[in-house]
């Protein structure tokens, strides 16, 4: 949305012009991109598989 003053020849504000934009396509593409990034994060998340052994930052008691 844009709001601009409508000026007369004498540089006086005679009104306001308001312009609206359809953001449906942008919002849809943004949601699809976010969903794709979240899906990739789930796939690349480290597994909690006990067969993989202890994590490298885990301390074992002496």
Overview of the structural elements:
There is one protein chain. The chain is an alpha+beta fold and 62 residues long. The chain has a domain at 2-43. It is 34% helix and 21% strand. It contains one helix and two strands; from the N terminus they run E-E-H. The chain has a two-stranded antiparallel ribbon with strand order 1-2. The longest helix is centred in the middle third of the chain and has 21 residues, at 24-44. The radius of gyration is 28 Å and the shape is rod-shaped. It starts with a strand and ends in an 18-residue tail after the last helix. The mean pLDDT is 79.
Concise summary:
The chain has one helix spanning 24-44; strands at 2-7, 13-19.
Q: How does the overall form come out from the CA principal axes?
A: rod-shaped
Report the span from N to C terminus. Answer: 65 Å
SSE string, helices as H and strands as E: EEH
Strand fraction equals 15-25%
- Stretches where pLDDT is under 50 for at least 5 consecutive residues are none
What is the structural class?
alpha+beta
The number of distinct β-strands equals 2
How many H/I helical runs?
A: 1
